[in-house]
Structures are given as structure tokens and as C-alpha cells.
Amino acid sequence: MSLPRLRLERCSFDNGIWTIDAEEAHHLVRVRHCYTGSLVEGLLNGEKITLRLHCGGGAVTARELSRETEAAFEPRMELVLGLLKNDQLDEALRFCAETGVFRIHLAVCERSVPRYEGARLADKMKRWRKILDEATKQAGAAAPPLLCEPVPLSAMDFAAMPAQRLAAMLSDGTLPLRDAAIESALALAVGPEGDWAPEEAELLLAEGFAPVSLGARIMRASTAVAAFCSGAAMLYKK
Ligand code: SAM
Questions:
Q1: Are 149 and 229 in a shared domain?
Q2: Which residue's CA is the closest to the ligand 1 atom numbered 5?
Q3: CA of 173 to the centre of ligand 1 (A)
Q4: Both 195 and 136 in a single domain?
Q5: Domain endpoint, select from 47, 69, 91
Q6: CATH number of the domain that residue 30 is part of
Q7: How many domains are there within the chain?
Q8: Which of 89, 170, 203, 220 to mutate for ligand 1's pocket (most ligand atoms within 8 Å of CB)?
Q9: Beta 47-56 vs 59-69: how paired, if at all?
Q10: pLDDT truncated to tens, each residue of the chain (238 aa)?
Q11: Do 62 and 80 lie in a common domain?
């Protein structure tokens, strides 16, 4: 069985001992019912660290026993995701962390309902990164997906994306995902709740995205993220 996990970014380290921050300590002790002597797994910057917990004197500390660097997840997936409304986006972000997405490019699409800027955007970015961090504990991922600030789809830097590109589309003439030969790095695209506008679908095709079907049923965008990313990861053969 896997060990209870915590993220170590906000914990301090001195001489082999980690002092666990209040939020992670609360989660381990009150939610996961850990106690002095429990083994837990710390996640930090791509490393997995085995720790033995000590609870006492109003603090939770942990002795570091061993650490290992997590192997890079393959395939390396970059997801272009149409900006979604609150709950849908939260859910989609969790699925990204769970299915092994490397980087998320949020695209402001013609049919995206939310528009964020300034302090509101900064707050949202902080919240979304926290959701990704939390989801890595469930997934046992040492590093969360990287999250890029939303930009209009038309301003996205496609040149920096992997050469293999697949876009989930509801139109005719799509390739079933199961027939795609997944390469070691790829870009995937999922549209917003209102779907891609026709000119956005054209832009993606012009940028080399092959239109892909995820099946006969129309999924919510967050479900499409889960199906697409986990499907691509499962189809990848080294
Ligand atoms: N409102 C649209 C409708 O009902 O026609 C549905 C848009 S869907 C919720 C949002 C996105 O999910 C789409 O742009 C597409 O990228 C993806 N998607 C959902 N189901 C799909 C499927 N079966 N095949 C391919 N893409 C799908």
C-alpha cells in the first residue's frame, strides 16, 4: 500500500529533519491518522523522500530516511486547454496531474466564459497551482504539471510545442484516438464547454493538430481531458 503523502515546498529542513508546515501536519495527523513513527512520503521538485514522522511538543517533524529522483513521465504531454468555468477547470486540472500531463497551456477561446486579469488572475493562478499540488499527493507524482497563464488561442506559442499534435474535436473526419501512434512527446488540445469556434478549429489544423475523436459520446471538457490524456499515455509504447 502507498504511504500517506505530503508536499514539502512549505516545510523547512535542517540537519536531516523536516519541520512540517501547519496545513500538511493537520492533513497527516487529523485526516490520514498518522502518528509518531509513521512512514510518509514527501514530494519535492521531482524527488520522492521517505520520512519517519514525529508528533510532539506542538510540532510535527520528520526524519529523512532516503530520497530518489522520479523518472520523467512518458509520454511528455503538453495540454492546450480552453479556459473553463470554475468547477470544470478545477476538475480538469486534477485530471491533468493524475494522468501525468507535463505542462498546461490555458487558452482563452471565443466561447470561454471566464475572463481573468490583474489581481484576480494572480489569485486564480495561485489557487489552480494549489489544486495541482494537492492532486500530486493522490497521484504520487513528485512534481506537479507546469501551468502557463491563460493567453488567447490565437496568441499561443505553438512553435515551442512538440511536433506530434492531436486536437479533440467533435467534427466529422476525425481519427479515433486508438488509431494514433503516440510519440514520446506530444501536444493535446481540448476545447472549452462551448466547443472550439470554427476559426479556432481551423487554426489548430493549420498549426499541425490532427483532429481526434474520443468516442461517440460528447463528454464534458474535464472528462475529455481525463479520457484524452490517460488514453494517450496508455497507448504510448516505448
Ligand atoms: N457544447 C458542445 C456540444 O455539446 O456540442 C460540447 C463541447 S465539449 C464539452 C468540450 C470539448 O471536449 C470539445 O471541444 C472537445 O475538445 C472535447 N470532446 C468532448 N467529447 C469529445 C469526443 N467524443 N471526441 C472528441 N472530443 C471531445
A1: yes
A2: 195
A3: 15
A4: yes
A5: 69
A6: 2.40.240.20
A7: 2
A8: 170
A9: antiparallel
A10: 799 999 999 999 999 999 999 999 999 999 999 999 999 999 999 999 999 999 998 899 999 999 999 999 999 999 999 999 999 999 999 999 999 999 999 999 999 999 999 999 999 999 999 999 999 999 999 999 999 999 999 999 999 999 999 999 999 999 999 999 999 999 999 999 999 999 999 999 999 999 999 999 999 999 999 999 999 999 999 8
A11: no
Q: Peptide bond preceding 75: is omega within 30 degrees of 0, i.e. cis?
A: yes
Which residue's alpha carbon is nearest to atom 21 within ligand 1?
218
Q: Of 44, 69, 94, at which residue does a domain stop?
A: 69
Ligand 1 pocket mutation pick from 218, 220, 222, 223 by most atoms within 8 angstroms of CB: 218
Domain range for 148: 76-235
Q: In this structure, are 80 and 65 located in the same domain?
A: no
CB burial of 34-57 (b: ≥16 within 10 Å; e: otherwise) equals beeebebbbbbeeebbbbebbbee
Alpha helices in the chain (DSSP H): 22-26, 86-99, 118-139, 198-206, 221-235
Q: What sign does the dihedral 77-80-82-85 (CA atoms) show?
A: positive
Residues within a 6 A CB radius of ligand 1: 168-170, 190-191, 193-196, 213-215, 217-221, 224
State in Å: Cα 85 to ligand 1 middle: 15
Gap from CA of 192 to ligand 1 centroid (Å):
8
C-alpha of residue 224 to centroid of ligand 1, in Å: 7
Atom of ligand 1 nearest to the CA of 194: 1
d(CA 102, CA 39): 28
Look up cell 529522483; give the residue: 69
The CATH number that applies at residue 175 is: 3.40.1280.10
